[in-house]
Amino acid sequence: MITSRDNRWLKRFRAALAGVREDDGMVGVEGVRLVEAALGSGLPVEALLISELGARHLARVAPVMATDVPVLRTSDKLFASVADTQTPQGIAALVRPRQAKFENLVSGTALLVVLVGVQDPGNVGTILRAAEAFGATGAATCPADGIGTADPLGPKALRASAGSALRLPVVHGIAPAILVAQLSKFRVKLYAAVADTSEEKSENGSTGSNSPSLPPWEIDWKIPAALLIGNEGSGIPADLVRTADGRVYIPQAGSAAPIGVESLNAAMAASVLLYEAMRQRIPARQERK
User: Fold this and answer.
1) DSSP output for 237-273
2) Helix (H, G, I), strand (E, B), or coil: what is residue 101?
3) I need a labelling partner for 122 at 20 to 30 A (CA). Which of 85, 159, 222, 231 fits?
4) Hey, which CATH number is domain 102-281, 3.40.50.1700, 3.40.190.10, 3.40.1280.10, 3.40.430.10?
5) CA-based Rg of the chain, rounded to a whole angstrom?
6) DSSP states along 264-279
7) How far apart are CA 280 and CA 62, in angstroms?
8) Is 46 left (phi over 0), alpha (psi -120 to 50) or beta?
């Protein structure tokens, strides 16, 4: 039972839950659903922290918790002092995330989502959640024109991913030039998600570059492929778009209102495109008689 605010374990949890990554690389996860996901992921868990109120969650996480995980107990007040949420559920864990290598992401018939300068941690987490749900083999993040992508293992991104950021292999912070070279080496086609520029197309369907701009159903997602998702405001840098094997856009219905939907946000666009990739990859179902 931890009773001191200055206890070393509480200091570690306070830093980890705030998104501070120390030398040991441990990540803090908070809330019963995220802790359950972490315990069931097979990742090393250094310790579990339980408040008086949070003790009721032990029965739920017990089936997926290894017997050697230390369970630390503290008061509701002290737990609230280390929590990152406004209404703590009284349960948190220190988890060591897997170190993914790029080679692992592109093995077999790869389907990657690459986040380029996506700053909103909520968008990052939601994209990773969609990536796992729709069968992506991994994800990578890149900076764009000096703008970095939010940490997939940060508190807000973790919550938005509902645990997918722990399960899905993710390479964080790879340089765009290295990414393009690695994808080419492993023969993974690179597709850049762009805004619907149909009104700018010429007669041959080109948008002014060597990369064709196509709706998602006209792209073959059954082969090894990577999808680029850009910054919420500025999109993907033009030089990176030019290196892509193709451009993909999501056609939208016209709006009768003077001001309609300008574009989909990064997370929604990624979800639509990843769903189409999954639709093409799953075996055709036999029609019901």
Assistant:
1) -HHHHHHSSEEE-------SSSS------HHHHHHHH
2) coil
3) 222
4) 3.40.1280.10
5) 21
6) --HHHHHHHHHHHHHH
7) 38
8) alpha
Element (H, E) at 177: helix 176-185
155 phi and psi angles, rounded to 5 deg:
-55, -50
Q: Which of 232, 208, 44 is nearest to 149 (CA)?
A: 232
- Work out the percent of the chain whose per-residue pLDDT is above 70: 89
Q: What is the pLDDT of residue 210?
A: 55
pTM: 0.86
Question: What are the residue ranges spanned by the domains of the chain?
Answer: 8-95, 102-281
Asked: is 8-95 a CATH 3.40.50.300 domain? The reply is: no
pLDDT tens digits, residue range 206-264? 444 455 689 999 999 999 999 999 998 888 999 999 999 999 999 887 654 555 556 78
Q: Which residue has the tokens 């508190």?
A: 155
Which of 42, 50, 45, 95 has the alpha carbon at shortest distance from 71? 50
> Is pLDDT above 70 for 205?
no
- Continuous segment of H or E residues that includes residue 281: helix 266-281
Contact partners, residue 13, CB within 8 Å, separation at least 6: 28, 49, 82, 92, 94
Backbone phi, psi, residue 144, to 5°:
-135, 115
Smallest CA-to-CA distance from 92 within 67, 72, 122 is with 72
Phi then psi dihedrals of residue 280, to 5 deg: -75, -30
Amino acid at position 156, single letter: K
Give residue 144's pLDDT.
87
